[in-house]
Write a structure and sequence with these properties.
Length: 317
């Protein structure tokens, strides 16, 4: 693990689709390895190939089961698929996402599918730092589409929307989701709503509630994209092909409207900012000037603004 990897060789093997090399590169991302600079330089020409689909929604709504069903639907179209399951609350990958692995077992031996879970808590740069780099790896490995699953709590769902080309918001009956959706600002981020667990009572009510909320807001109509609402039974794969069709339709709209390049430009800007801020923070912490300044602030000798000015007047070592 600590051996410095032969980066060009690793990248070449990942680009030829070797699963172990892909996994290794994503581990470098997770570990914030110093090798990443070289990795990203080599990957740059091949970034942007994959269409990025975000799936978010409350815990237990069926995101992993839906991801599994969507992977099957994409594989049926002969497309190569990457899956990133992101757990913003857990500092370790593995534990909390074990359930996801089990639910995605269908594709464990398919070499047209890369499945990877990633933990971002405790990572200095967080989700916005690590995820785009993992996406670059998967894109370079030839994935036509990458599905990112993240649980819809707090800031993570908003971040996921800014990382994805198309964002799916999942709801299910019996979870008070109609109300939750309005509260959580989920209406703003969805390009597509999926009401999962349509085999359960109340799915039509969720659809109706969503439809009336959407017609009140009607934010996208003027931009030419009307947010569709689909029903699925992910556990039986029902509706997955239709969801893929709508994602493709949204993709075509993204391209024709110019929105795709706008979204990707904004994403790249976010990514640059995250890298710059993270390295600035790392540098400041290792710089040795922060603690003495903090002591002076505590002693009332200077105020924190003046201390920050002093810090920034000279770039960190
Ligand atoms: N009845 C029914 N159950 C479903 C359906 N889809 C998923 N489930 C079940 O719902 C439970 C949660 O599914 P997951 O796919 O793990 O949900 P999740 O959103 O990924 O959950 P977290 O990752 O923990 O937030 C599992 O027991 C699934 O079998 C469905 O369409 N109908
Ligand atoms: Mg899950």
């Amino acid at each position: 693990m600590t051996l410095s990897p032969d980066v060009p060789d690793l990248v070449a093997r990942a680009e030829s689709g070797e699963a172990r090399a892909v996994a290794r590169l994503i581990s470098l991302v997770e570990d914030a390895s110093p090798s990443l600079r070289e990795v990203m330089q080599l990957l740059a020409p091949r970034a942007g190939h994959a269409r990025v689909i975000g799936l978010t929604g409350s815990p237990g709504v069926g995101k992993s089961t839906s991801t599994n069903a969507l992977v099957s639907a994409y594989r049926a179209r002969g497309m190569k698929v990457g899956v990133l399951a992101i757990d913003p609350s857990s500092p370790f990958s593995g534990g909390a996402l074990l359930g996801d692995r089990v639910r995605m077992q269908d594709h464990a031996t398919d070499d047209g599918v890369f499945i990877r879970s990633m933990a971002t808590r405790g990572h200095l740069g967080g989700l916005s730092w690590a995820t785009p780099q993992a996406l670059r790896v998967l894109s370079a490995a030839g994935c036509d589409v990458v599905l990112i699953e993240t649980v819809g709590v707090g800031q993570a769902e908003v971040e996921i929307a800014s990382l994805a080309d198309t964002t799916l918001v999942l709801l299910a009956p019996g979870m008070g989701d109609g109300i939750q959706a309005a509260k959580a600002g989920i209406l703003e981020i969805a390009d597509l709503f999926v009401v999962n667990k349509a085999d359960r009572e109340g799915a039509d009510t969720v659809v109706r509630d969503l439809r009336s909320m959407l017609s009140l807001g009607d934010r996208r109509t003027d931009q030419g994209w009307r947010v569709p609402i689909l029903k699925t039974v992910a556990s039986r794969g029902e509706g997955a092909a239709e969801v893929v069709e709508e994602i493709e339709r949204h993709g075509a709209w993204l391209e024709s409207s110019g929105e795709l390049s706008r979204r990707r430009q904004r994403r790249a800007a976010d990514e640059i900012e995250a890298i710059a801020l993270t390295s600035l923070r790392v540098d400041l912490r290792g710089d040795g000037r922060l603690e003495p300044l903090a002591a002076r602030v505590v002693a009332g000798e200077i105020d924190p603004y003046a201390a920050a000015d002093e810090l920034m007047a000279q770039p960190p070592r």
